[in-house]
C-alpha cells in the first residue's frame, strides 16, 4: 500500500545507497504517521501462482492475510476506535485480503462511511488492476488519492507464467488470453488514474527464472503510463501455492535490480509487505493489539468446513443450463477432495419468457434466501443483474460447460487457494 502510512507530501526523496554511486533515488518514511488497513474485500479475481489466501495465522505478516474480514460498518467502527488510540492516524488503506476492486461495493461503502466522519483522511487502495479501468471515475469521486497496482510483467508470455487464471464478468480465462486481458487493463487503468492526478505506485514481485530478467522493462513501461514510483519486492514463499518451492531471489539481487531501475523511476526501499489488517507505524504493526490475539480466526480454510455449490443442470451430469431458466438447483458439497450430492432446491424461474426477463427484485430476493448457505452458483450462463446480486450477497458465480463433479473440483480448488489436480 502506498504511501505506507505517510501522505505523498511527507515522502522525502534522498539520494545515495550503501554503494556510493549516488544514482539511485530512494523514498523513505521520515515522519511518524500511522496507517490502518481495513480488510473488507475478501474476493479476488485472479489467481497468482505465488499466492494462497485460504488461511490466517495471527502472527503472520504478509499481503493477503487478515485475522478477520470486516463489513463496511465494522470497518468504520474499527477506524474510529483506532483513531482514538492513535492520534497520528492519517491514512486508510484497503489492500484486500483479496482485491479492493473485486469487492468494490464493500470498498466503496467503507470509504464513503469513513469520509463522512473524517473529511481529511488520506485514502489508498491496492489492486491487481484487472478491473481498474472501469472504476477510475468512482475512485476519483471517492477521494482516493493513492493507488498501488501490482504489475509483475508487461509481456503477455511472461505474465502467462505467473497467473493461473483471471475471472472477468463471470468468465474464467487462463494462459495467454487471461494474461493479455490482465496486462492491458493494468496499463490502461494506470494511465487513466495518472491522467486524473492520482498518485500511482507499482508493486513488482521478482520471481526467479520467470520475470527477474524483465523488471527493467516493466519499470520503463509503467513510467510511460504515469507511475511515479515502483516497489520491487521479494516473493514470500507460501506453502500450498504453485510457487511454494521456487527459491526467492536474494535481497542483494533485489537491491541490484532496484539500483538499475532507479535510473528510470524512484524506488521504494521501506516497504514491509504488510498484512491486510495492519495498524500503526510502518514496521510496528499493532493489529493484534486492536483485534485481540485471542479472538477467533474467522477466515479459516473454507474447505475444512466444506464448500456448497448450487448447480444449474438439466441433465444432472453436466453444467448445461442458463441461470435464468432454472426452476430447481442441485446442491453439492465439496469436502476434503470429495464431491457429494446434498439435495434439490426449487425456485421460481428468474426469466420465464421474453416479456419477463427484466430484473425482479422480489424473485431475486427469494432466490438469494434459498441459496444463502451456498458458496457459489455454477451455471452455463448468467445475466449481469443476477450475477451482481449474487456476488453482493457473498455467493460467487461461475460459468462453464463441464461435468458437474469436474467443475466443482476445479472451482473448490481455486476457492481454497490451490490448483485443482
Describe the structure.
Helix 3 (132-141) packs parallel to helix 5 (175-195). The relative contact order is 0.13. The longest helix has 21 residues, at 175-195. The chain has an eight-stranded mixed β-sheet. A five-stranded mixed β-sheet has the order 17-16-15-18-19. It folds into two domains: 8-291, TIM Barrel (Alpha-Beta Barrel); 302-415, Dinitrogenase iron-molybdenum cofactor biosynthesis domain (Nucleotidyltransferase, domain 5), CATH 3.30.420. It has helices at residues 72-85, 104-117, 132-141, 156-159, 175-195, 215-224, 251-261, 287-291, 302-305, 361-370, 384-392, 404-415; strands spanning 11-15, 25-29, 34-37, 46-48, 89-94, 122-127, 144-150, 163-168, 171-174, 199-206, 229-234, 267-268, 279-281, 284-285, 307-311, 328-335, 338-346, 376-379, 396-399. The model is unreliable at 1-31, 55-64, 272-276, 279-303 and 354-359 (pLDDT under 50). 29% of the residues lie in helices and 23% in strands. It has 421 residues and is α/β, with parallel strands linked by helices. A hairpin with a 2-residue loop joins strand 8 and strand 9 (171-174). The protein has twelve helices and 19 strands.
Amino acid at each position: 500500500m502506498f504511501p505506507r502510512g505517510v501522505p505523498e507530501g511527507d515522502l522525502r526523496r534522498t539520494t545515495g545507497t550503501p554503494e556510493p554511486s549516488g544514482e539511485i533515488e530512494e523514498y523513505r518514511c521520515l515522519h511518524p504517521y500511522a496507517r490502518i488497513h481495513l480488510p473488507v474485500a475478501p474476493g479476488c479475481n485472479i489467481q497468482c501462482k505465488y499466492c494462497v489466501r485460504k488461511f490466517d495465522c495471527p502472527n503472520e505478516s504478509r499481503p493477503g492475510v487478515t485475522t478477520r474480514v470486516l463489513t463496511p460498518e465494522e470497518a468504520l467502527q474499527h477506524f474510529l476506535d483506532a483513531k482514538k488510540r492513535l492520534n497520528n492516524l492519517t491514512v486508510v488503506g484497503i489492500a484486500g485480503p483479496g482485491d479492493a476492486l473485486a469487492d468494490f461495493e464493500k470498498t466503496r461503502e467503507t470509504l464513503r462511511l469513513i469520509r463522512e466522519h473524517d473529511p481529511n483522511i488520506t485514502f489508498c487502495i491496492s489492486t491487481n488492476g484487472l478491473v481498474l479501468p472501469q472504476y477510475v471515475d468512482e475512485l476519483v469521486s471517492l477521494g482516493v488519492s493513492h493507488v498501488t497496482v501490482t504489475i509483475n510483467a508487461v509481456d503477455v508470455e511472461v505474465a502467462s507464467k505467473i497467473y493461473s487464471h483471471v475471472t472477468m464478468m463471470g468468465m474464467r480465462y487462463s494462459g495467454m488470453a487471461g494474461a493479455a486481458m490482465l496486462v492491458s487493463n493494468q496499463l490502461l487503468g494506470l494511465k487513466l488514474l495518472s491522467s486524473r492526478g492520482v498518485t500511482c505506485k507499482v508493486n513488482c514481485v521478482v520471481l526467479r527464472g520467470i520475470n527477474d530478467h524483465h523488471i527493467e522493462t516493466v519499470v520503463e513501461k509503467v513510467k510511460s503510463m504515469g507511475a511515479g514510483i515502483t516497489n520491487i519486492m521479494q516473493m514470500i514463499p507460501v506453502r500450498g501455492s504453485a510457487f511454494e518451492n521456487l527459491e526467492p531471489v536474494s535481497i542483494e539481487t533485489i537491491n541490484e535490480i532496484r539500483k538499475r531501475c532507479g535510473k528510470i523511476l524512484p524506488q521504494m526501499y521501506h516497504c514491509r509487505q504488510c498484512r491486510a489488517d495492519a495498524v500503526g507505524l510502518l514496521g510496528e504493526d499493532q493489529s493484534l493489539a486492536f483485534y485481540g490475539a485471542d479472538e477467533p480466526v474467522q477466515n479459516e480454510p473454507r474447505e475444512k468446513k466444506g464448500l456448497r455449490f448450487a448447480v444449474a443442470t438439466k441433465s444432472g451430469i453436466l453444467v448445461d443450463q442458463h441461470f435464468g431458466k432454472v426452476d430447481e438447483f442441485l446442491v453439492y458439497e465439496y469436502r476434503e477432495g470429495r464431491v457429494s450430492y446434498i439435495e434439490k432446491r426449487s425456485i421460481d424461474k428468474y426469466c420465464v419468457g421474453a416479456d419477463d426477463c427484466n430484473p425482479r427484485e422480489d424473485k431475486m430476493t427469494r432466490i438469494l434466501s434459498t441459496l444463502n448457505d451456498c458458496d457459489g452458483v455454477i451455471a452455463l450462463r448468467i445475466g449481469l443483474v443476477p450475477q451482481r446480486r449474487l456476488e453482493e450477497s457473498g455467493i460467487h458465480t461461475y460459468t462453464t460447460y463441464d461435468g458437474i463433479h469436474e467443475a466443482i473440483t476445479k472451482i473448490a480448488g481455486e476457492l481454497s487457494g490451490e490448483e485443482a489436480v
